[in-house]
UniProtKB/TrEMBL annotation:
Catalytic activity from the UniProt record: 4 Fe(2+) + O2 + 4 H(+) = 4 Fe(3+) + 2 H2O; Fe(2+)(in) = Fe(2+)(out)
Similarity comment: Belongs to the bacterioferritin family.
Protein name: Bacterioferritin
Residue ranges annotated for the Ferritin-like diiron domain, each copy included: 1-146
Organism of origin: Oceanisphaera pacifica
Keywords: Heme, Ion transport, Iron, Iron storage, Iron transport, Metal-binding, Oxidoreductase, Transport
Lineage, opening ranks: Bacteria, Pseudomonadati, Pseudomonadota, Gammaproteobacteria, Aeromonadales
UniProt KW NAD keyword: no
Length: 155
């Protein structure tokens, strides 16, 4: 099927964001593991897998629409130096993904590509209700119980 060139280009931009998220989660998860924060490692490693799944869906859709997935482009990574910075960096990344998904969904509406829009709605729901919500909770917990108590709870 030949899809809209605008939608394919926008999907490739989303793909760059998902691949960057994947890279950032991968690095952060290994940093948590190295520091002994097993719970954070497991959760962020799970997020890495989720981002890989999101990237796979976008790649499959680009191919279905007759495009070529851009596996080279990436958004800049923001690797934190400590746990609060890492969580905030990941949260900022997810908030940008939400904005980007909404913009591409609006483009899909304009281009009358409702199947792509519906696929992106699933990614948006996962990003808003799982990834972002959990990261907001963690940042809030640090504020409520203090960094040392939070870190102890993550071992």
């Amino acid at each position: 099927m030949k899809g809209s060139a605008k939608v394919i280009a926008a999907l490739n931009e989303l793909l760059a964001g998902e691949l960057s998220s994947m890279d950032q989660y991968f690095i952060h998860s290994r940093m948590y593991e190295d520091w002994g924060y097993q719970k954070l490692y497991e959760r962020i490693d799970h997020e890495f897998d989720d981002e890989k799944g999101h990237a796979a869906l976008i790649i499959e859709r680009i191919l279905f629409l007759g495009g070529t997935p851009d596996m080279v482009s990436r958004a800049p990574l923001n690797i934190g130096k400590d746990v609060p910075a890492m969580l905030q960096s990941d949260l900022n990344l997810e908030l940008k993904v939400i904005d980007d998904l909404r913009e591409v969904m609006a483009l899909c509406e304009q281009e009358r590509d409702y199947q792509t829009r519906d696929m992106l709605q699933v990614l948006l729901s996962d990003t808003e209700n799982d990834h972002t919500h959990w990261l907001e909770q963690q940042v809030g917990l640090i504020d409520k119980i203090g960094l040392q108590n939070y870190l102890q709870s993550q071992m």
